[in-house]
Write a structure and sequence with these properties.
Length: about 210
Amino acid sequence: MGHAVIIASCNGACLCGLLLRDTQRRGPGWHRVTSLADRAALYLLLVYIYGERERSAARREPALRPPPPGDSALLLFAEDGSAVGCATLKRRGQLLRERAGPERFQMDILDTVFVRCAARRSGRTLALLEKLAGAAARLGRQLGVTRPTPAMRRLLRAFLAGRPWARDLLFEVTWAAGVHNRTNIWEQLVADGAGEGPEGAAPSSSSA
């Protein structure tokens, strides 16, 4: 029985590794989900790796579900070609709910983001924010973020502290991100005492 469990575990690990491999050889960084293989990797990251192995209830990390078909998604690939993270987005103009009325999202929204524990603290999520906020700035639009966790809020604080140009662009949003369902993230951080100080200094990590 013990040997059978070990063999099954090894086979499962090998299968996970194969499913998380980038067969399109796109290189390290964030890339759009474009194939069934990408969708399988996205599902595995959200449901099994995050949901069963790396989610921390102590850090108030929420349960995540695979996105509905209408959502956009990105995979984060490491240098060795393995998927180590993912993000899902609601797009401006996308229906709030399929076949449930005409209401649409008012801005692009970063709905979920997950990076594996071993791949964190290397600037990958900051790079994603830079990419999305930069695209919004070029189009004269805003970027929403759904229910940021405490860790994500600290990262947003660090991102905005060094990028004044993005402070008017990022909003914490609910529902369709209409004018009554959005709060400017930087203004909220300042009001909470976690934003820029009176001399313009970036906040310290201990102020989170």
